[in-house]
């Protein structure tokens, strides 16, 4: 067999913290661990096999649980990823991240990264050094994914538990299982099996280099998510209006249903009333199926499609940063 003289890909690891960087109290303690304490250098040192996959470099951009990540952190991360991918010295980026808000960060990057080079996010459901900890294999697989030629143009993906998920479709589906991340409506893009990356599908929705938000550090207006449930009232809706909220996402019942008090306001024929209302995006608390545009509630009400409330929230904030035109915002929701 002839030697393989292909150069190793240059993959840069950007570490943010999370369970993958956490220390357990004992080998059988999977909860109550010390969060985000293991540095990126210590993480890489535990996987010497990475040197066979790629020419690795790494940095610690911050070290915190994902529930503490701020808007500024997201833009700092996006800016750094764009800076890295613009260089000939970087073929792809892997990001380690806590799983609690991994889907939000992944989707934000899917809208703001301005390159078609691979961006792969991974993490862990079990802290380091417990029996069957998943972090190191997830990281190894993520580097496999980022180093694969097939990953180019796939947008931002999540690589967890041997599967590859589009940032758009991935959701955290369990609070404790290692197979926590799934794409229950559309399924997985591919797999990483014994170091081999295999894709079955490509994402067709707008992402990364084709996104109108890519490479921009925008000032995001305030938006709130309101949960609809049996017996709820409009107290939080009124509070959102009084706080100057520019947009509202509802986690609605069924096909994105909202309570009567809210629906009546947006259906009002009094322009003096509707002019004061923020854009409202109807999403659903139901995990699959999405929201259709079947219910007409006025021009300021937009159906989220199959984006869940937290992803609709991200897209609405980015959209409102560039326009307040409901028709244009509706176009963005169709694009993504």
CATH architecture of the largest domain: 3-Layer(aba) Sandwich
Number of strands: 14
Main sheet, how many strands, which sense, barrel? 8 strands, mixed
What percentage of residues falls in helices of 4 or more residues?
25-40%
H/I helix tally: 10
Strand order of the largest sheet: 2-1-3-4-5-6-9-10
Structural class: alpha/beta
- The global form is globular
Beta-strand level of the residues, as a percent range?
A: 15-25%
Top-tier CATH class of the largest domain: Alpha Beta
* Count of the domains: 2
Low-pLDDT regions: none
CATH fold name of the largest domain: Rossmann fold
Radius of gyration, Cα only, in angstroms?
21 Å
How do the SSEs run, as a string of H and E?
EHHEHEHEHEEEEEEEHEHHEEHH
CATH superfamily of the largest domain: L-asparaginase, N-terminal domain
